[in-house]
Amino acid sequence: MRAANQSPDTLIESLRVNFLGSAPGWYKSVIAGFLILNPLALMLVGPVITGWLLLFQFIFCLAMALKCYPLQPGGLLALEAVFIGLTSPDQIYHEVAANLSVILLLMFMVAGIYFMKGMLLFVFTRLLLNVKSKTFLSLMFSVMGALLSAFLDALTVTAVLISVCLGFYSVYHQVASGQQGRKRHDNNDDSSMVADRRQQLEQFRSFLRSLLMHGAVGTALGGVCTLVGEPQNLLIGEKMGWSFPDFFLQMAPVTLPVLVAGLLTVVVVERLKWFGYGEQIPAPVLEILRNHDKKRDNTPRERARLYIQFGGAVFLTLALAFHVAEVGMIGVAVIVLMTSANGVTQKRQLGAAFQETMPFAALLVVFFVIVSVIHDQHLFQPIIAWVLALELEAQPVMLFVANGLLSAISDNVFVATVYINEVDQAYRSGTISREHFDTLAVAINTGTNLPSVATPNGQAAFLFLLTSAVAPLVRLSYMRMVVMALPYTVVLSVVGLMATASFL
Predict the structure, then answer these.
(1) Cα-Cα-Cα-Cα dihedral of 461, 465, 469, 473, to 10°?
(2) Are 163 and 356 in contact (CB under 8 A)?
(3) Is the Cα torsion angle 221, 367, 59, 205 positive or negative in sign?
(4) Residue 341 belongs to a domain
(5) CA-only gyration radius of the chain, Å
(6) Which of 92, 167, 192, 348 places its Cα 20 to 30 Å from the Cα of 43?
(7) Same domain, 281 and 157
(8) Rounded to 5 degrees, what angle do the CA atoms 478, 482, 21 make?
(9) In terms of DSSP H, where are the helices of 177-295?
C-alpha cells in the first residue's frame, strides 16, 4: 500500500486527490454525486424539485464545514446552478447588491474588531476571573449579546465573542503546549500536550462552546427587538414607516416575553447541564489565565494602546447606535483610527485582520446564489400564497410558523424580504387594513428572527460562528450547534408563537 504522503502515480489519480484537497474520500464522492445528479434531476423532475435538491445539498455542505470549508463544494453547486439555468448572473448580482451592506460589514467591521482585541480580551478576562458562578457568567454573556445586538449588529457582536474566546483558547493552548512566548503558535496542534492537559483542554473547549452559544443566542434575543438589530428589521421598518421607538413598541408584546424566556433558558440548561451546557472552567486553566493576566505587558505604551482601543469602542458604539453611516463604512473608520493611532502600518499586519472575514464574505456570495435560485424558481411561493389565503385571524400565527420553518433552512433576511413585500402588496391593493398590516409585519419579523436559531444557515451570525477560526478549535460542528441551540429553538418558538396568538 502506498504511503499517505507519497505522490499519486497517475494524472487521473492526482486529479482525484487534488479535488477538495484533504476532505475525506466519501465526502468527495458525495459532492461529485451531487454535481452529476442535478442536471439529470432537472431533465427528469423539473427546476422546482431540482431547486429544492440544491438547497438541501448546500445545507449538507454547511453541516460538513469541519470536513471541508463550504466555499468550495457550495461554490461548485452554485456554479452548476447557473450553468444549468436554475438562476442567472443578473439575478445573483441583484441579490448581492441588495445585501451589499452585510458584505461590507463582514469585510470591514469584523476586521475593525480585530484591532480592538487587546481591549476585548482585557475586559472579558476581568469578567472571567471575577465571576465565580458559571451560570451567572453565562447569563452575563447572553445579556451582553442581547444588549449589544439591540443597538449594534449581531455579526459585529458575534465577531467580538469569537475574538474573546479565541484569545482565551490561545493563551491556555500556548502554555499547555509548552510554547509560551513564541510568536508563531499553531492552536490546532495538540501533539505536544501531556495526557492530563488534554483532559483539561476538552473541558475548556466545552466551557468555551457554551459561552459562545449563549452569547450567539443572546444576539438573536436582542436583535429582534430594535430597528437596527438585524438587517431585515431595517427593511421591515422602512416598509412600515416605523421609527426606532415605534419599532420597539410594536415588537414588544412578542419580543419581551421571549427575551425573559430566553434568559431563563440560560439558567435552566446551565443548572441541569443539558444539551452540552454546564461545564465549569478547569481550575488549572483558570490559574493559567490568571498568571497570564498578571504577566500582561503594563508598560505606558501598552496602556496607551488599550486607551486608544477603549476610545475606539466608544466611537463604534455611538456610530452604530445613531446609524451615522452604513455599518461597513463605520468599520473602515475603525480600522483607520485603530491602526494609525496604535502604529499598525505594515501591509502584512493589516492583512492578518482580513484572514477570517474574506473567506466568509465569499461564502456569503455563494449563499446568495442559492437564494437567487429560491427566488427564480419560486420555491417558497406556494407557502406564501397558502398563508395569505387563510382567514385574517389565523394569518399572524401561520406567518410566524411559516417564516420560522423557512428561515431555519434558508436565510432569514431573504425570507423576511419575500414576505414583507407580498404583505405590502396586499396592503396597497386594499386586501388588508393598516392595523392588520402592522400585525403581520410583527409576525414576519419575529418569525424570521426567533425560530431561525435552529440552524447555522438561519442567521448570518450563526453561520459566521460555524465557519470561524474558533469553531474547529472548540469542536463546534454544525450538528453540535443544532443540538445546543435546540432548547432555545423550542423555547423561543413556543413562547413567540403563544405571544403572537395572544397579543397580536
Answers:
(1) 170
(2) no
(3) negative
(4) yes
(5) 23
(6) 92
(7) yes
(8) 5
(9) 195-223, 231-240, 244-272, 283-294
Per-residue CA distances from 106 to 145, 401, 421 (Å): 18, 30, 26
Residues 6+ apart with CB under 8 A from 5: none
| C-alpha span between 444 and 412 (Å, rounded) | 10
Contact criterion met (CB below 8 Å) for 451 and 404: yes
How many CB atoms are closer than 10 A to CB 178?
A: 11
- Each residue's pLDDT tens digit, 219-276: 999 989 887 777 778 778 878 888 878 889 999 999 999 999 999 999 999 999 999 9
Q: Is 283 within a domain?
A: yes
CA dist., res. 241 & res. 104, Å (int): 25
In a domain, 176, yes or no: yes
* Higher-pLDDT residue of 136, 299: 136
Domain that holds residue 151: 100-219+274-358
For residues 78 and 106, state if they share a domain. Answer: no
Whether 78 and 200 map to the same domain: the answer is: no
Q: How many domains does the chain have?
A: 2
pLDDT band at 69 (very low <50, low <70, confident <90, very high): confident
Of 294, 326, 358, the one marking the end of a domain is: 358
Predicted confidence (pLDDT) per residue in 331-344, tens digit? 889 889 988 988 88
pTM for the structure as a whole: 0.78
| Claim to verify: residue 304 and residue 167 sit in the same structural domain | yes
The three three-digit cell numbers of residue 285, written as one number: 486553566
